[in-house]
Amino acid sequence: MKNSLIALSSMLMLGGTAQAQKVTFEEYDLPNGLHVILHNDPSAPVVITSVMYHVGAKDENPERTGFAHFFEHLLFEGTENIKRGEWFKMVTSNGGTNNANTTEDRTYYFEVFPSNNTELGLWMESERLMHPVINQIGVDTQNEVVKEEKRLRVDNQPYGQLIAEVKKNMFKVHPYRWATIGSMEHLDAATLKEFQDFNKKFYSPNNAVLVVAGQIDIAQTKAWIQKYFGPIPRGVEIKKQTFTEAPITETIRATYEDPNIQKPMVVAAYRIPSMKTRDARVLDMISTYLSNGKSSKLYKKIVDDKKMALQVGAFNYAQEDYGQYILYGMPQGDFTSADLIKEVDEEIVKLQTDLISEKDFQKLQNINESNYVNENSGIEGVAENLATYYLLYGDVNLVNTNIDILRSVTREEMREAAKKYLNPNQRLILDYVPAKDKAENK
């Protein structure tokens, strides 16, 4: 459900400044358990009404994967008071746009309207929560939509299976082991009642946070929230199951053949702690140090200087329970995947042995400051940050203070994190290669 926000992007950017300002907000709970966060920004005449639900791919039955993502589509089908096919027409005819997305940990829906349509956005999101119509025609329609999305973005996309293959090999008991888009066979086999039961269990006010951000009248907005969300009954209390993975103590080796590629890629992935931890933030800085831009250590060494690879990179795949630190490279010429891993390991050993230079460390801090400004430069980003920090981190004010945590990270901590998490016996080495039949036909 990746609808473009181009139409309002210029207006949204007016909500930012060249220098990050403290994000002010007010939060409270309705009696039904819905957490509400309000952020008034009078600088642009727009408002975003968003709801984030604490349900993602990890909350699914292993035999019914893909449900959370499926609902990202299904809940645009209509409600008791919004006829099927009318949702998007209603949004666009009132000068707005909407979107939704799903991760392993949560599902997020929002509308952006001119601020004089704040009430409309609130009513629509309350309708999605209180009066969804989940019937067979909607399920059948969205089943085909999801299948087409999978064909386009996963099955026929070069390197489209990379994250899924990493997860599958790194998690044995945790639900992170399956792809967010799930299994089409599972969706085909599901009954209408199973979809209705999933909605009843997870789409409740006490499993969600409502964020309203933009040019709003706080008192009036509270009155509308009470009017539309207050009558929604509290749902059942959800008990989240805890899954603990055994430590990785020896290198996991795997191969995946992708019929959509011509160039192989090698991946080294390490399981790391929850994104809520300080260590995860330190590893984020290590990722930036190694691979952020063409002046980063890995790119300059392996791509520019030694010309061993077409591309190298690293990123921290942050999640609520565990994360994955993923390094990747595409060898070129006579160089092999093993050659790239050797070069990467040399840089990691340097991190584990020596402190990075003061100059490199200052560069990291500058990048952190720039990212912080960019993340809070528009109403859309602020709204999603407020929801995420409440629902997944348990602290809304991290929207302002997370940068302070990053500022407090030391070079010594970076060295210790590299020692603790980035060792050869703690990782997956995935050879992501062209399918054999394709390679033989070249």
UniProtKB/TrEMBL annotation:
Residues 36-176 form the Peptidase M16 N-terminal domain. GO terms for biological process: proteolysis. Residues 190-367 form the Peptidase M16 C-terminal domain. Belongs to the peptidase M16 family. Keywords: Hydrolase, Metalloprotease, Protease, Signal, Zinc. PANTHER family: NARDILYSIN, NON-CATALYTIC MEMBER OF PEPTIDASE SUBFAMILY M16B-RELATED. Residues 1-20 form the signal peptide. Its EC number is 3.4.24.-. Gene3D superfamilies: Metalloenzyme, LuxS/M16 peptidase-like (3.30.830.10). It is an enzyme of class 3 (hydrolase). This is Putative zinc protease. The keyword Hydrolase applies. InterPro entries: Metalloenz_LuxS/M16 (IPR011249), Pept_M16_N (IPR011765), Peptidase_M16 (IPR050626), Peptidase_M16_C (IPR007863). GO terms for molecular function: metal ion binding; metallopeptidase activity.
